[in-house]
Amino acid sequence: xxxxxxxxxxxxxxxxxxxxxxxxxxxxxxxxxxxxxxxxxxxxxxxxxxxxxxxxxxxxxxxxxxxxxxxxxxxxxxxxxxxxxxxxxxxxxxxxxxxxxxxxxxxxxxxxxxxxxxxxxxxxxxxxxxxxxxxxxxxxxxxxxxxxxxxxxxxxxxxxxxxxxxxxxxxxxxxxxxxxxxxxxxxxxxxxxxxxxxxxxxxxxxxxxxxxxxxxxxxxxxxxxxxxxxxxxxxxxxxxxxxxxxxxxxxxxxxxxxxxxxxxxxxxxxxxxxxxxxxxxxxxxxxxxxxxxxxxxxxxxxxxxxxxxxxxxxxxxxxxxxxxxxxxxxxxxxxxxxxxxxxxxxxxxxxxxxxxxxxxxxxxxxxxxxxxxxxxxxxxxxxxxxxxxxxxxxxxxxxxxxxxxxxxxxxxxxxxxxxxxxxxxxxxxxxx
Length: 432
Known about the structure:
Elements (H helix, E strand, L loop, with lengths): L1 H10 L21 H9 L7 H11 L4 E5 L5 H15 L7 E4 L3 H14 L7 E4 L5 H13 L3 E4 L1 H8 L11 E4 L2 H6 L3 H10 L5 E6 L4 H10 L4 E5 L8 E7 L2 H12 L7 E4 L3 H13 L4 E4 L5 H12 L5 E4 L14 E4 L6 H8 L9 E7 L4 H11 L48
Parallel strand pairs: 1-6, 1-7, 2-4, 2-5, 3-4, 5-6, 8-13, 9-11, 9-12, 10-11, 12-13
Helix pairs in contact: 3-4, 4-5, 7-9
């Protein structure tokens, strides 16, 4: 156990990048005074590598396809030049359309935009499903009267586009953020339909954490002779201290309790594989008197916002979530990320652990590997190009399974007793 908390101490030390970028400042981009005032108010001084590379290309009115993992500053990379352009050419029309996969990411971008554009004459709105009729009417007014920036999830936007009132003919920017996630979620047809409504003469920016063939195919159809940018493709951020435990499912909750009990970690993010497991883990942590809450699709938007707000302001220590949040939460200084279940997609591991060590900070990411998930974890190690250290279980937890990723395990393993959390009978239902 001492090893992982030594990692925590190491993670508190300043991170020293292996390849430091040139010492540029935001003054080098010649942004408009209103935008620079917003940046100063938010204490933004030095652009990240993705910002250094993307912003000059966007300002030159070129399309781009950028591969950058979460936590590298890509949101500011596309928002800042967009805000600058709107300040230069104001008007009551939809200037920029940003398409995102989840409501959490839409809200995150909308909040970032509000900060950057605080001193700029700019209107914006986040449009996403799961809200009531009043919100839909507010969205309709914004889309007909020309809010400058629309941040939208595909399904909700199509609902408005199908009604024929969306003023989109003067669009200057189309931005596809987390494009790989949108395709993974089955939004390919929705994206094509949305694009069919848009003017062909526009500047298109595509941001993706990974670059599989399907993303390149979408880029060929959507972008015009784009510049390409690659930042840390498919690698966890340098500041993430990674380790794993090989466990039976019945040992997971005891291991988690052992890791967290008595440790002063302000923010802990736990990922589990399904909504039902997230709910079950929340109940168990509350039973053990931990300050924890879950976020999942059964909560309405107000409830989700309250949970996230409490987590951001540190009144909630531990947040439990499915992968819906792996790319949609923007909270600095998360000290510990726990993969209670190994993600089904190796790429999702990058995004989960990317919730810590954001913007050149440091943090710790731990993964619990049961026998069934060993092959999946091996694929993660192959993707990132190195082996993640397996830590010994605490003696009070008992002996765990051997790490044999080449062996096929057909059934979930409960260490012989078929029980799950806290000795209760485990249900192995379908994933949701």
